[in-house]
Write a structure and sequence with these properties.
CATH superfamily of the largest domain: OmpA-like domain
Distance between the termini: 71 Å
Number of domains: 2
Number of helices: 7
Number of strands: 14
Order of helices and strands: HEHEHEHEEEEEEEEHEHEHE
CATH architecture of the largest domain: 2-Layer Sandwich
Shape: elongated
Oligomer: single chain
Strand content: 25-35%
Radius of gyration: 28 Å
């Protein structure tokens, strides 16, 4: 029953990988997802029954909606010649490959390598150490197809459009400079959420969160000079529902705000809070006011805790008086109403 389940589970993945490889044309990366280590008896490449159970459980817990590949690397202790141990390690890798195929993992997903005795993790002078060295590692890599994220920054009122772009996604933090015309490019994983911020000396900043599957290409990104009245919306802040507690998902946006204020320490800023409170909701005006104000205080406290001198920063609650959508019809419009804005005072 288990074997049949594995075979059906991985059949589509094997076919999908063939198509994926053809479409990707080599433009993909592998990211380590997980690994399992099994051990062998002396001079043996037979998989113990308890290790077979571990392998089955290990494979069964994988979410195979994501494309994976399996890399098997096997080792030996130092008993025997180098040549013999090299062959033995290859047999151990092939033994695991055979078992993976038996439980339904397609051959196209599996590669093997024998390391021999040259990479011990324990001294071979005692049997306890040799037991640890007689091992095989099953590495599981997530395949990530890459896409080109390119755009152009326009610094309004300037002939030189040089700017810095910071990008952050799962397992990736990177930055780059534009050329003088404002052009830049990143290679990013496909179908991932990416947060990026755009900065230039003397200019406001902007941040965006995009999905590399549905939101590329990105059009021109315009920045205005820093001057009184200019403001920027912090679009990717996340709070606990109806509270002023920032969620961890807000970190990329907060880091971008930190970059801006550290580069412009003499600015007088207003941190303005807005809530979603349509008339049709019949909410309490004081509650709306206090929630918006408390959220601005949470931002100011974050900056203070990060070493920023906030004496020239003020917090202001706009409550529900400046909603972009007075009567939102969906969550996206309600989200636009729930916002924090940074405004230049002088």
């Amino acid at each position: 029953m288990i074997l049949s389940s594995f075979k059906s589970k991985f059949l589509a993945l094997g076919i999908g990988l063939l198509i994926f490889q053809q479409e990707a044309a080599g433009q993909f990366t592998e990211q380590l997802k997980d690994r399992l280590t099994v051990h062998f008896e002396t001079d043996s490449y037979t998989i113990a029954n308890e290790d077979k159970e571990q392998i089955e459980q290990f494979i069964d817990e994988l979410d195979v909606v994501t494309p994976y590949v399996f890399r098997i690397q096997s080792h030996t202790d130092s008993i025997g010649s180098l040549q013999y141990n090299q062959k033995l390690s290859e047999r151990r890798s092939n033994s695991i490959k055979t078992y993976l195929r038996q439980i339904g993992v397609p051959e196209i997903l599996i590669s093997t390598k024998g390391i021999g005795e040259i990479k011990p993790i324990m001294p071979n002078s005692e049997e306890e150490g040799r037991r640890y060295n007689r091992r095989a590692n099953i590495f599981v890599f997530e395949i990530q197809k890459q896409r080109l994220f390119k755009s152009r920054v326009v610094l309004n009122g300037s002939k030189n459009h040089k700017a810095t772009i910071y990008i952050q996604t799962d397992g990736l933090i990177d930055s780059t400079q534009t050329d003088e015309k404002g052009n830049f490019a990143f290679v990013v994983p496909e179908n991932k959420d990416v947060t990026f911020g755009v900065f230039a000396p003397g200019y406001m900043f902007t941040t965006r969160k995009i999905n590399t599957e549905r939101d590329l290409p990105v059009g021109d990104i315009s920045l205005n000079r820093i001057r009184p009245g200019e403001k920027v919306t912090l679009q990717n802040l996340y709070f606990v529902g109806d509270k002023a507690i920032l969620l961890p998902e807000s970190k990329p946006e907060l880091i971008n705000l930190l970059r801006f204020v550290r580069s412009n320490p003499r600015l007088h800023l207003e941190i303005g809070g807005h809530v979603n409170g349509p008339q049709s909701y019949g909410g309490d005006a004081n509650w709306y006011y206090n929630l918006a104000y408390d959220r601005t205080k949470a931002i100011k406290t974050y900056l203070e805790n990060s070493g920023i001198d906030t004496r020239h920063y003020t917090c202001h609650s706009y409550s529900n008086t400046q909603m972009i959508y007075p009567e939102p019809v969906n969550e996206e419009e309600a989200k636009m109403n729930r916002r924090v804005e940074i405004r230049i005072l002088d």
